[in-house]
Protein: Chitin-binding type-1 domain-containing protein
Organism: Brassica campestris
Amino acid sequence: MALTKISLVLLLCLLCLYSETVKSQNCGCASGVCCSQYGYCGNGPDYCGSGCRSGPCTGTQGGSLGSIVSQAFFNNIINRADNGCAGKRFYTRDSFISAANTFPNFANSVTRREIATMFAHFTQEVGYFCYIEEINGASRNYCDDRNYPQYPCAPGKTYYGRGPIQLSWNYNYAQCGQSLGLDLLRQPETVSSNPTIAFRTALWFWVNNVRPVLNQGFGATIRAINGDLECNGSLMVKEAGSLVNEVKWNIFGSSFIVLDSGLGSEMGDPSHRNLGGKSVKPTQNSISTSGAVNLRKVNRVRGHWSASKSD
């Protein structure tokens, strides 16, 4: 019963993946009119085909990036964050779209399933886009230039989690920066000062580490992002990891209840689902009194959430 309630509540978070918006947020187009890749309103292949941002796009793979990640979809997630959250004034749907368009292979081939998977991870990593930086991250050491001497840590700089996927460690900042044409090794704070760059770092990690394992199932994406913490039984995260995986699985699964009512049997019983690490079941303390997972009662620690009791 509790898992059913979790799915129903989190379903609302991603419901807009499959609903049409009245107007295009980028073009201001009327309902039923496409917003082209260049920002113009109209119908026909030039407007609704490849690169179409929103409206009745006719592109392959379940619609264009802009039509899948609509403003309403994004708002349904970020509006669940507390008003005092710094991320609520930082992350925007437009910054995500702008970042994604710098990865044309991703933007032109992304599917609803991949977006549902990606935003399930984003939602858990930064609490409905509440957080920009890891809580107490500055007090932790993410410098490993002994094993990665080619990426020496810059004096006075720290490499704790930043952005929607919480990019961490000097070697990740260095390699990501090289790929994006940014000096993130010397200026890691750039990630938390520019929302488009923040999403670009998340997409860099996604394209290089997560996308290649999408066909292996949802559990493989958990392992690709934080397998050492959420899958391998660390004492520090043994219980919290189960909650994290369950939250992610339900967010992902909820989006597809709308898309394909037959997917439920394919997904199996989530209370015993192997999510890439071990079979997981939510603990009593992981469920709020309303039956919904309360991400506001969870603390961000080194790439995972540690559970605390609900009020």
The first helix runs from residue 2 to 14. Residues 1-26, 232-249, 251-311 have pLDDT under 50 and may be disordered. The chain is about 40% helix and 5% strand.
